[in-house]
Amino acid sequence: MNNFFEASAHLLTDFYAGTSAKCYTFLGAHPTERGTQFAVFAPNAEQVFVVGSFNNWTEGKNPLVLTNGIWHAFIPEAKIGDTYKYAICHNGKTVLKSDPFAFYSELRPNTASIIYHLPDFAWTDQEYWNTKRKDNILKQPVNIYEVHLGSFRQKEDGSFYNFREIAPYLTNYALEMSYNYIELLPICEHPLDASWGYQTTGYYSITSRYGSPEDFQYFINCLHDAGIGVIMDWVPGHFCRDENGLYAFDGTHLFESDNAVKADNPGWGTCNFDFTKTHVRSFLKSCADYYFSAFHIDGIRVDAVANMLSFDFGKPRCNELKNQYDGYDNVEAICFLRDLNAYIQTAYPGTITCAEDSSDRAGITHPPEIGGLGFTFKWNMGWMNDSIEYMKHDPIYRSSLHEKMTFPLFYAFNEHFILPLSHDEVVHGKCSMVEKMPGYRWDKFAQLRTYYTYMYGLPGKKLQFMGNEFGHALEWRFYEPLEWDLLQFPEYAGLKAFSAALNHIYLSEPALWEQDTGWEGFGWCDANARNESVFSFARYSKERENTLVFLMNFTPMPHENFRLGVPFFTEYEEILNSDHALFGGNNGLNRAFLIPKPIGAGEMPYSVTLNLPPYGAIILKPIDTSGKNR
Question: 447: closest CA among 405, 487, 482?
């Protein structure tokens, strides 16, 4: 064993045990002043060569030697910036493979890996992280703006802005709109733009579409300097079948299952990782660590968790899909997720792991020691589906769907939820958010403002896909920028102004996040106004003066002198009215101070009377709380 492997012996042990979080430090291409050390895990290959620009892509010139399943060699001629692949020979066939641990890759359609050394970056986010590590994220506001970088903005010639160029645009926009997190659709290397990044070939390689890994460090540092976190979408459940990628990597099923039924992911045309293989667990755990360590990311959103949890996801049940206990749970994937979450939250305090999970499995955000998976948050897909179905119906029929809006409160505290209106809801014929709303143009925007108020009032953190905030008219198209020109029209500009005002209230009002995980932070004022399609509830902070009362009308019928139940016998101020002219409404505002009466309404002991506009939403805040405790 050479000096390289002597230095890496303990890392190799962890790699084979499935516990490594640092295997990228010895596998892959690592340049030095004298040349480059190559190492690739391909235990079933008969021979492996490195071919690249440094040897004129000549197969046979630079053979690797095999030690403990790792093919390795030091090549003096190979320098930073050179392109390369591994020529892997098995059973009489040679296939050129990209490096699974490459830190950088060619721009598609080219697929070669690039020898790259990430320089020491001059981070200025220490103060940011000092604050993050002190905070309990469950008791803090999380308002996420989900972004596909290639279509957020584009240059006049249709090309992409790189990370450095788009950083000030995105930072300033997030500050203007009061988002405190950016979530990026996958930015690991992928061959097809139309996959949006969800079919990965280079797990350690920041896609060259948007610049270099150092550019990505600059991007994150810029956002952190403004107090904005960055979450990465990440796909550890399945991978792209392209020949240069992980599929049949060493001529055998190295990363996927030997069981073809388990390996195949027909819904996405991809291949599932096999979590029974310890090197797969090390490969993915180390991948997550790499982004937290090298790029200071704030979190990962794990895509398609349901696909990882169960072998029968998207497939008819059969014996070939059963686990060793005669069931369909992917036991090893479940163990991997528990280990991953525990590791990240210990190694990188103040960070987030999110599960995009469509299953009904309990305990996604519960601690592993009591049987949970340990995620920080779970996307609330049930809330999203129910509430969108309600909003798509004509207001005449909404009373029959009343429970679609109230039922999510029955399980709101079973997990730590994010309420998402994501990219998946504005593609594939689903219409943009504003076009889901029934009625004429004014009706659509008015209903959307009220729906957003309902969303931001409920327990749970928030996520909006780019364009939702101003009423992007078309479905999202990954190949063209958002319709920013629409902001010249008052209804779109009004919705943007409303979204900014609502976001600001969310970030600044502790009632909306301080007690977000239990009933002490929420109470219905009236959940039973079915015939009117009106909903009202209170959000409570630890301090009574921070209480907020929400009232939403999902019909075109105005209500004059509407009696709203309130928790305290004190004056209330209208801090937001979706019908304000600035937001595109008809200015059906209420007087500055609303004086309560000692008359109960709904579930509350007191009440105020006010005017509730058509499709209107109102937020009230107590002015003086010297009255009785609730």
Answer: 405
Q: Is 215 a catalytic residue?
A: no
State the catalytic residue, choosing from 274, 303, 532, 579: 303
Give the β-pairing of 417-421 and 461-465: parallel
Strand partners of residue 198 = none
Number of Cβ atoms within 10 Å of the Cβ of 59: 15
List the structure tokens of 415.
């997990």
Could you please report the per-residue DSSP string of 566-620?
Answer: ESSSS-EEEEEETT-GGGTS------SEE--BS--BTTBSEEEEEEE-TT-EEEE
Map tokens 């904005």 to a residue: 228
Domain ranges of the chain: 3-114, 147-449+457-480
- Helices marked H in 254-304: 260-263, 278-295
Could you say which of 298, 356, 516, 532 is catalytic?
Answer: 356
User: pLDDT tens for residues 142-156?
Assistant: 999 999 999 999 999
| Token reading at 485 | 């020109």
Going by their DSSP bridges, the two strands 70-75 and 65-67 should be labelled as antiparallel
Q: What does the block give as tokens for 507?
A: 């970030």
Contact between residue 36 and residue 79 where contact means Cβ atoms under 8 Å apart: yes
The CATH number of domain 3-114, selected from 3.40.50.720, 2.60.40.10, 2.60.120.10, 3.40.50.150: 2.60.40.10
Q: How confident is the model at residue 10 (pLDDT cuts 50, 70, 90)?
A: confident
Is 356 among the catalytic positions? yes
Give the right CATH number for 147-449+457-480 from 3.90.580.10, 3.20.20.80, 1.10.150.170, 3.30.9.10: 3.20.20.80
Q: Which residues contact 162 (CB under 8 A, 6 or more apart)?
A: 210, 211, 215
Could you report the per-residue pLDDT of 260-313, keeping only the tens digit for each? 999 999 999 999 999 999 999 999 999 999 999 999 999 999 999 999 999 999
Which phi and psi angles does 158 have, rounded to 5°?
Answer: 85, 0
